[in-house]
Every structure is written in structure tokens, then in C-alpha cells.
Amino acid sequence: MSQLLDSEVVTHHALVVDANPMSRSVLMQHLRSFGFAVVKQANRIVDARDMLEGRRFDVVVCDYHFDDGVSGQDLLEELRREQMMPYSTVFIMVTGEATYAKVAEAAEAALDSYLVKPFSANTLYERVKEARQRKRVLKDIFDALEAKQMERAAQMCIERFEAKQLYWLYAARIGAELLLGMKRNAEGKKLYDAVIAAKTVPWARLGVARAQLADGDVAMARRTLESLLSDQPQYADSYDVMGKVQMEQGQLVEAMETYKTAATLTPGCILRLQHCGTLSFYMGDAGVAADMLERTWSMGHKSRLFDVLSMVLLAFLRFDAADSKGLSLANDTLRRFSETYRHSLRLRRMAQLGEMLMLLHERKASAAIERAREAFKEMQAPEFEMEAATNTLSLWSRLLRFGVDEAEFKSVVVALTRRFSVSKATMEVLAASVRSHEAAPSWVRESHADVMKLAEQAMNHAVAGQPRDAVTTLLSHGEETGNAKLIEMAGLVAQRHRDRIDGIEAILDRASNLSKRFCSPTSHIAGVRRSNRSAGGMVLRVASNKPPASKAASEPIKATQPAATSAQAA
């Protein structure tokens, strides 16, 4: 058929993603007949991802099945997670009968429509037209998001949901995500509950679990997820959040199995491969880690989804395997990233790690050890964060083989643990970083217990009616160790008892300064960090039609930790 979809289509761009040349040609011909000004094509998911990162398309028609094991749903999920696709873009999936159930499930997540083969030009026309109509109806909400007017956008979503106006379910999901993003967890959960009452959908039940987790109710979040996974075992987003819950509970082995399941369900998802590969590395499963991280690099090195931490971990694995060529390539890659984005301290530290591993491999141990000692001196710097700590511990556990004294290694382990162990989860990650040394994990746990004991002793002062002593003790220990938990506890106690503490303003200023120094946003591995972004959700940052300023500045592996949040590589 040859009929314009609407008056705007003559200025709009479309993208067809299909491995079959004939199908691709037919789809392109149909879209041109509907009036699209420009119709582009891609025969692989990786090419489509690059195109969508670099420019804006108004309509994407994507096949579900690709021979390399990556699916159209994998692409959709990553676009949705990483906000590389504006809300105004229509995404339509094409599938065969065999995969209909999976695509129908995806439709509840972020899909605008889907087509089951074979289909006619008229069916495609109607699906695209209907999807574009929904975008127009919800335009005010999308415009508010583009203008970063989150409160206004959330209110419009709530009003549309309550009035059961056209597309109320879609609006409800956007509104609930906005409320969670604004830390209005109770309101977000209420909206998810209302959606469930009106129409039970997996994403609403997952939203309830995410709201519970955001409120610190880890046990309840786990029960919600267990129920959801029992009913929807193929719902990959649920495994992301369950993995995060398990990490919060310090169950790294269970979390790794959960992340493996998510990666198996979506083998083309770069983020899940990175997540699984990273945790496998720290859990000592070198084979799985190498496989996952190599696939991550192969599939995603041109994408802003790629996290350079993956290459750091590959450098460690190649060093351990005495793979000269592989280590050299990893080192060159880290150096190129650092030179390309010179403003990034994070990338510079990663490049330095690569150089130190090369020195060790070349038997220049004394030079590597001296550089490691110099780098460790930065551990009290504000920008030295958990990821840097785990990388440092991974390096020092290898330096033992090259003459570093065990007592010196222990001092490094204890100092980093006292600074960064703020919960059972962070303790387990730090212990995993030094698992190659028989005694080192126990040093981590003992140091964590020491920090908790310091906190308990200080809080005894508050219980005894001496809040000023409690606060000053916590601040002194916090300043000495750099531990964010101690500093944050001091601030909370000071606020709670401010009317009973002499010189409270000076104390609060000290707490604030220490918080800025040691509690700044940070990032690190698989599921242990506090983030404004909720795993498994329809993330609400409006995508730009411009390519990213730094592909190296991709966000680290997703998840959360008590005293830190995600940061760009820069």
C-alpha cells in the first residue's frame, strides 16, 4: 500500500533491523511507501546499536531472531536501560509463532507493538500508525521529561492513570518510575499496587520489589521477587533485581548464579554479560569470567554500554594465564582509552594497572611494586572509591608472588577494608578481591568487625545520654579510616540530638566536610552500590539524538551499595 501515515512522517527517519536481506528489503519498501523521508537498514544487532547511539530514529522495526544468538529483545532492553532511545521513538518487533510468547511478554516492558510473521503491508501500517498515535497522546508527558520537569511529568501520569484515560497503563509505568527516581518510594509502590489491582502485569510486581528494596526492606523485596519468578521464570529483569538483593545480603555465590541465569536468558545483553563476568572474576571462576568478558568486548567495545572495567579484569585474567599477547592488547586498549579521555582519573588509574601488570609480566617487579606503593598513597583521596579499592586489592594479591612482604600486603588489605567496608555486602566483595590468598579474606572480615565495633562503642555513648561524645567519637574514627558508615552515623546522631549538643554547628560542619570528602558518589562491582537508577526498571533519562561525549565514559556495572552511587568513567 502507498499511503502517508500522517503529515509528520515526511520528515521522519526509520530503521529496519533484520538479518534476512529479502525481509529487510520488503520492510524498507513498505516504510518508504508510508512516507518516511529516510529509511536505513542494519543486518546485525551490533550495527543497529551503533546506529541508534549515533542518531535519532522515529521508528525502529526489528526482527526478533538473529543467528548469532543475540535477539531483537536484547537490543530493546539495552536501549531501554541505557536511555539511548527517546520515548518518542516507536519500536516494533517482528517475530515468528515460535517466539510469540517472549515478544508478547516484552510488549509489557517497553515494546510499542509487535508483528507475527507472515504479515501484510496493511498490518504493518496499522501497527505503526497506532504506536505513533500513542506517542502523540502522551506528548505532554514526554515533553516534560525532555525539559527535565519530572514532578510535572509524574503528576500528569498519575492523573491519566486515575482517570483511566487513553494509554493509562503505559502512563502509570512512567509515573511510577519517576516517583522511584525522586525517592518517593511509598508513592511509587502505591501506584504499582494500583496497577496490579487493575491489571496484573509482571513489570508492576517488579516495581513493587524495587520500591521495597529502595526503602531498605530487603527481606520483603526478596519475597516479592521469589513470587514473581515462580510465576514468570523467563522474566530477565527480575533476575537483575534478585541478584542485587542477594548482593545486599552478602550472598555472592547465589547472586552469581542469578546473574548467570539473566545472562543466559539474554545472551546478547552487554550489561548482563559484564555484570556476570565481573562477579565471576571476583568469585574466582576464571573460565566463566574470561568467556563473559571476552564476549562483552567482542560485542560491545564500540558501544557506550561497554565499561572499561571489563578490560581491566581481562588484563588480570590474561596476566594470570601468562598470555603475553592478550595482556599486551589489554594494556594497549586501556592506554588508548586513557589517552583519548585525558580528563578521566578513573581511566588513568585503569591504564596504570595495565602498565603495572605488564611490568610484572616482563619481570620488572621492583618497578611495578614501587608504582603500586605510590598509587596506594592515594587511598584516602576523595575520588578513590570502591572500584579502585577492589582493583588495588586484586593487584596486591598478585604482587605477593614478586617479593612483597605479607605484612605489607596485610596493611593494604586492612586499610582499604576499614575505609570501604560499610556493610556485609561490601565486606564480601572486598574479601572476594583477595580470595587467592588463604588468610586475606579473614583479614577483611576482622577489619570489618573492628569498624562495626567502633560504631557500637560510639553509639553506647548516645544510649548513655552522651550524644556529643558519640558524635565526636564517630567523627574521629571516620576521619581516621575514611569509612562512610561512621561519618554518616555521626551526622544522623548529631541531627537527632542537636538540641542537646554544645557547639553543634561546628560539629555539623565537620561532619559535612568529612561527608563531602569520603561519602562522595562512587562505583564498583556487581550489585553493591547505591544508585539513583533502579535495576530492572524503565529508566527515565531522556535519550539524546547526539552521540555520547565519551564512549569510554560508560557507566560501571549496574547495581547498589550503602555508601556510594554510580558515576561516569570520567
Give the gist of this structure.
By secondary structure, the protein is mainly alpha-helical. It has 26 helices and 5 strands.
Helix/strand layout:
Layout: E1 13-17, H1 21-33, E2 38-42, H2 45-54, E3 59-63, H3 72-81, E4 90-95, H4 100-107, E5 113-116, H5 121-137, H6 139-146, H7 150-162, H8 168-181, H9 185-198, H10 202-214, H11 218-231, H12 236-248, H13 252-265, H14 270-282, H15 286-300, H16 309-320, H17 324-340, H18 345-361, H19 365-376, H20 386-399, H21 406-420, H22 424-433, H23 440-463, H24 467-481, H25 484-496, H26 504-518
Parallel strand pairs: 1-2, 1-3, 3-4, 4-5
Helix pairs in contact: 6-7, 7-8, 8-9, 8-10, 9-10, 10-11, 10-12, 11-12, 12-13, 13-14, 14-15, 14-16, 15-16, 16-17, 16-18, 17-18, 18-19, 18-20, 19-20, 20-21, 21-23, 22-23, 23-24, 24-25, 24-26, 25-26
Shape: globular
If classified by CATH, what would the architecture of the domain at 9-136 be?
3-Layer(aba) Sandwich
- Strand portion: under 5%
Instruction: Report the CATH C-level class of the domain at 9-136.
Output: Alpha Beta
CATH domain topology of the domain at 9-136? Rossmann fold
Oligomer: single chain
Cα-atom radius of gyration: 25 Å
Query: How many extended strands?
Result: 5
Count of helical regions = 26
| Spatial separation of the terminal alpha carbons | 50 Å
Low-pLDDT residue intervals, each spanning 5 or more residues: 527-570
Query: Order of strands across the widest beta sheet?
Result: 2-1-3-4-5
CATH superfamily placement of the domain at 9-136: Response regulator
